[in-house]
Task: inverse folding
């Protein structure tokens, strides 16, 4: 047998016919606000770029700086500031209004352009003979929030996305304080939308998400800011992602028990405020299909109502182009065994 | 450390900043027509669904049955019968002409519809307010070949995609003879386009591809059929995939030294006729970005001219939405070490 390729276990299997066609390995951490691990599967100490999964943390300066109040931002605008949005009309309008309230416009966005995540929005652009602009980028709401924060603080908004801009330094400090880990320039990468992304262990991210949701372990003002931000997301689930998207479905059906945010390269995080728990997971190869199935399995174990609400996500049926069922996306034996103890009441004492 | 997740080694790493952000494990077999393994990395005995990677083998009945001659098929039509095409105008026209020569039309196609692989073709459909039809399916050329074969043999073309249809039985027999492995119904799945797909070890697929390219180990008529089919693909590289697609680039730049065909879920196969070698690889999680990089590395080692011709594929630079270089898709240490011996002349004696 060849040298072991991965220290992380297989979490998800793609079944076609009677065989496993493909598989995904990864790691999962479920922690409380003190960092006590309820579940540690795979290497939860290995540094992981959280990418978009920490957007809710990146959005805190918008509140903590006073910008959200100064500009009288709506809940929709706060939600879109934490979003990986689908680029539909509703998202573009809200990002636009956020920028306008800050006396800015979408020409200030440094995130770069890409076709909207939403097929319908892409079709609309194509029918109009247009190409996407920066505002269509799924991160444009986050960037609008960063710009509004800079404007409110009297800072030059240009260059807001650079690692040394005060807004980015503020975000980095907040993430490190919430997660209880120093952020290291040696572990800094540039995100798809050009802002910095700092790698952190899944154990630290899970702790951070536990604190974000319950406020435990956070200074009082941060607890309030986090509560307002999450409440806005619970009130405006469509703004956090879009129709048919995983995070919107979770927010619509499981709020206020659960807040989730997915990130590129197979990262997904969640906050379960009533349980005082945080979840952080990473699929080694970056596959979203696996990250979302794993998150569904975890939520179904921790929240009784999720079993029913996320039935489609848990079902994992694969259909081909004729609608014939050809296989399944299924939790592995290792994942099922790891998740089972989460269902027992004793875990919460 | 957790229980080992994968017996296959890491082949490809995604680097962002100074860290490995994601990684892909998999297995590779490089063999000659006798099945002697030049390279066996990871588990090459494990059954793998080859998916579209065996389209050239699935296309052989079109020639062996006499259908290609009876219908006077052009090289473009033969090439599209082995294609995972991009759905551009040129592909649709050629699939249409193939069907017409067989006295059929695209209403007979059982592959199901999907948006064209080509962005430009998708945009054209959207601008015209149209939805894709079966002919836009990347497998429609393969299906057209199967239909033409059925028609020529006087068989009912309806149900040609079913496992028990004589055309599918013929294909299964041919694949098993070429690869030297019995095809097992227990290892049969249904492909995305609804035809059967039989799982085979990478070692057997590599052997099959060696034979397909050089004719060694094949009955004379099959050698001729394979030669005509590959020659058609060498003559019409655009028809085998499409602009900017990996297999088209390889065929344009490396023919007649190399024929490649990729399949879904991270499978890629190649035939190197002059070297008498075949390659078969599978990325465990199904990622195309990894399969194409691994194939590029193998070709660059085996064919001197590939180092230059596939420079873009080997370079692996990752740019974000602003065009900033944020990372790399790179071969792992294990892959580099495995591939190095392939470059020595002694391998070919």
Result:
């Amino acid at each position: 047998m060849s040298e072991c390729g991965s220290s992380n276990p297989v979490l998800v299997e793609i079944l076609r016919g009677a065989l496993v066609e493909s598989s995904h390995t990864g790691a999962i951490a479920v922690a409380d606000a003190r960092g006590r691990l309820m579940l540690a599967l795979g290497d939860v100490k290995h540094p992981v770029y959280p990418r978009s999964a920490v957007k809710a943390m990146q959005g805190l300066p918008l509140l903590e700086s006073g910008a959200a109040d100064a500009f009288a931002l709506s809940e929709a605008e706060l939600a879109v500031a934490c979003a990986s949005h689908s680029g539909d009309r509703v998202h573009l309008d809200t990002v636009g209004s956020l920028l306008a309230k800050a006396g800015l416009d979408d020409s200030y966005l440094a995130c770069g352009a890409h076709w909207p995540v939403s097929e319908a929005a892409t079709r609309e652009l194509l029918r109009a003979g247009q190409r996407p602009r920066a505002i269509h980028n799924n991160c444009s709401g986050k960037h609008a929030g960063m710009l509004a924060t800079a404007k409110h603080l009297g800072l030059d908004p240009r260059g807001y996305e650079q690692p040394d801009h005060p807004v980015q330094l503020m975000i980095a400090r907040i993430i490190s304080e919430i997660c209880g880990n120093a952020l290291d320039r040696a572990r800094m990468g540039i995100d798809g939308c050009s802002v910095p992304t700092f790698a952190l262990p899944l154990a630290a991210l899970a702790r951070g998400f536990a604190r974000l949701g319950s406020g435990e372990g956070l200074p009082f003002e941060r607890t309030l800011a986090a509560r307002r931000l999450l409440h806005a997301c619970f009130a405006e689930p469509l703004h956090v992602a879009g129709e048919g998207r995983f995070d919107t479905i979770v927010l619509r059906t499981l709020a206020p028990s659960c807040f989730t945010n997915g990130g590129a390269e197979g990262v997904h995080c969640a906050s379960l405020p009533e349980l005082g728990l945080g979840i952080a997971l990473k699929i080694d190869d970056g596959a979203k299909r696996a990250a979302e199935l794993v998150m569904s399995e975890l939520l179904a174990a921790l929240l009784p109502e999720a079993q029913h609400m996320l039935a489609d996500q848990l079902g994992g049926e694969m259909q081909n182009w004729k609608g014939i069922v050809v296989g399944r996306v299924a939790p592995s034996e290792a994942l099922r065994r790891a998740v089972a103890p989460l269902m027992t009441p004793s875990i919460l004492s």
